[in-house]
Amino acid sequence: MLYIELIKLWDEAVRAIDSRDWQSALTKLNQITEHNCRTMFVVASTHIALGQVDLAIEALDQVIAKDSCLAVGFFQRSAVHMMANRLEEALADCIWAQKFMRENPVIDYKQLGLRYKMYSWQVLYNAAAVHSRLQQWDKAREILTAASQERGAGRSNLIGIALEAISRREVLEPLLVPEGEVFRPRKQEVDQLKPRDFLGEAKVTRIFTLYSCFKSCLEINYKMQNSIIVQYMTFKHKIMSLCLFVF
């Protein structure tokens, strides 16, 4: 499909997501015949919002197939695997997400169109959540303790609450990219979809100027004709007077 068609459908899907019209968003996304990793991430996010876990996993599989180094793809899939109780796959995704963070404490995906910062402590938190579901409480506590040493917004409160939950042998819920936060097409590309007037607006003042010029020419011509007629009549009157005087 044409790239401009992809951008159009992608933008319409994102607008539907902003309105929380998930089904309409999915309808638009299903019309895209050639997805990239970012549009497939939007598809996965839509399935998650609709509670379609298996379809979300399939979409995230395609995200990672299209970009095998996308850390946030592994992070998101780890959470969805936990929702499907696929714990081994979830733990493997946490390991891959941590690897592709490349020892960075945070990755800001804003430049790629996703208004989300993913912190390494969040990846560790999900790993701890997997171990809590496996009832490996000591391992979960160990990972959470390591996560508490990481940098990042919102870390302290959430890690503290998680450690208390682990001490009570409570299973942790996985972290996901917030609902509604998806990859968006670049504004410059969306702006190109708008019709543009290459001729520009009509110059009304110019029309009036031309009209005024034409009108002035008519007035001048009319005055010249009147002047000639007056001169002729005056000359004719003098000739007639002269003839009468002679005779």
Automatic annotation (TrEMBL):
<dbReference type="InterPro" id="IPR051864">
    <property type="entry name" value="NCF2_NOXA1"/>
</dbReference>
<dbReference type="GO" id="GO:0005737">
    <property type="term" value="C:cytoplasm"/>
</dbReference>
<dbReference type="InterPro" id="IPR011990">
    <property type="entry name" value="TPR-like_helical_dom_sf"/>
</dbReference>
<keyword id="KW-0677">Repeat</keyword>
<keyword id="KW-0728">SH3 domain</keyword>
<keyword id="KW-0802">TPR repeat</keyword>
<dbReference type="GO" id="GO:0016176">
    <property type="term" value="F:superoxide-generating NADPH oxidase activator activity"/>
</dbReference>
<protein>
    <submittedName>
        <fullName>NADPH oxidase activator 1</fullName>
    </submittedName>
</protein>
<keyword id="KW-0963">Cytoplasm</keyword>
<comment type="similarity">
    <text>Belongs to the NCF2/NOXA1 family.</text>
</comment>
<dbReference type="GO" id="GO:0042554">
    <property type="term" value="P:superoxide anion generation"/>
</dbReference>
